[in-house]
């Protein structure tokens, strides 16, 4: 019997190939989109699953209560906490600490030099985190402070396909400081690990080569992790007892938090500048919602066309019932037809997913693979059964119950079927309209963010990392000899402005007002030289620019100066800040000499914060070079030539010349929005295509059902354009109803999405008008194209129909 059902279903598909193709393709496209998003969502939700016992690992964070009652959270803690957890809490199996370093220049024995990102790890790190070992023994890093573990990628860059274990890497800083390190192991850094490094060295290696260091500052800025014993879940009571560890050591207004390892990627809600790889949970939810909407559109399309097509099979049902077919046989036949078509759609969707996956990976900048799993098998079976039953339910349970005499007369022309079809079409239009509105607001916000006045000139500024500070001034003066270079400034990494070496919400700054009262405020600190304001075209509101006296910085008797922004001036609540002295957490007194107009290097999700700029030569390793746009390539060639010239003279100078335009660096703040805009555009186009395919199929079926009506109207004098308008009016009513429903839904979703930004583009009325007009125009083109042919044919042919 099953074989017979399948044969009949395949015969029906061949007999009406056009309608079957339209019916299947919408569902295939929806399923393909759902499969791609499913793979991406699973990938996002399984970050850091590459480590053994990951469910037992927690990152420790510090929660500090500010004077105003606000709680600030940070992942930077004292190194000694790791030992305290191991010794004082029996439920803790192990603990470790890692310190993220900077980029430094290393040279292999063959003379090859590269810039390398370092981390410092304690003795338990490679026992704690199970990175896949390519060669060597990572635990040997503890045998000697000059032993290092490198990543597989760095090993390939330095040593190609040869063995890296035993190779020597020389670190140099200036002309007098150097150290030689031995590679003891090579590990692979999984793509989904939040811990990223190229070279790991022991904590004891800090301060190598005789560099003057502050060990206390170093050890107070670690990431600490603990692993609970098997069966020792992190219960509330456990967390509370361990969270008081800092308080027990005498620190006030502070407690510890415990962040599960698997939550770091998607659920970090505080400044985490050391971990560059973070996802966004709202984006995951958005993509899940989009996938559900599109697959529902495909399923609705499939059901709508199947239901509409079934109305042409009344006579077939009548013949079967007259010849003795039982109702259960008819139900089985119609349901099996729906499942066969759903099965075909599923196979095609899997094939299309495999074909489009490389393109999807490039757009989303990921590395997904379609692999078999029980969850995939379950969703496939659920899809076949669910959609097949949905599509076959109307013909199975309604047509099988129709009286044979009524069936021979063509069945009922009106009733629940028409309302169901119209309702499903309206739902498709609502989804398409809402997606168009969301896509419009995302692109509008992106345009707003990229073109808003940020209080600085971001164009034609080249960023170069030099890796050193003490000799940058000479290089800067050499560049300024070129007339096409309009300004050069030394500064910290502005890509991490507001995070960097300070917390995202700033550090505590104190001052004494004219009445002798001491007040404080959290300000973001930015290290730069005196040419910073001029190079970035900032507006000086009051006072003058600060000095950048290299020699004076090391002389404690000389006064240090700073420039603050307008937000800091307002927050200080003083009439005139010029001449006032502020004291940072570093304990260095700074004299305010100027106020600049508010500027913004951060994403527009963030409000502009109080900030102060001061010169600290130890922190300015980046050069920002303002060039003339007319001779861009020639100027870049000149910069490269001078860079390579200085690199030969100074061993600490980064050897590989690389640059980035500052405007591109700022646009990286909006990588998530660009990703969302691309996906929304894709889903919007897909939704429109599916909706158009559904309208096309329904119009084709409708004109086929109403062929005689069209012929009679023409015989009675109706013109073709009048018949076309009749059909258009019907579908425009559906679009109008969908528009009325979609507008408030779209507005609410747009407002909700924009609420993430401190600075928002307005929701313009023309977005709604444009979405409605586009939907109406596409629908009209589809309806007119399909009905004109039928309305223009000879009425004799129409009346001869059937």
Automatic annotation (TrEMBL):
It is found in: Cell membrane. The keyword Nucleotidyltransferase does not apply. Residues 289-404, 682-795 form the ABC3 transporter permease C-terminal domain. One of its GO terms (cellular component) is plasma membrane. Pfam families: FtsX, MacB_PCD. InterPro entries: ABC3_permease_C (IPR003838), MacB_PCD (IPR025857), Macrolide_Exporter_MacB (IPR050250). It comes from the Bacteria. It is a multi-pass membrane protein. Residues 20-234, 431-632 form the MacB-like periplasmic core domain. GO terms for molecular function: transmembrane transporter activity. Keywords: Cell membrane, Membrane, Transmembrane, Transmembrane helix. The chain crosses the membrane at residues 21-41, 284-308, 329-352, 372-399, 420-443, 679-701, 731-750, 762-784. This is ABC transporter permease. It comes from Mediterranea massiliensis. The lineage of its organism: Bacteria, Pseudomonadati, Bacteroidota, Bacteroidia, Bacteroidales.
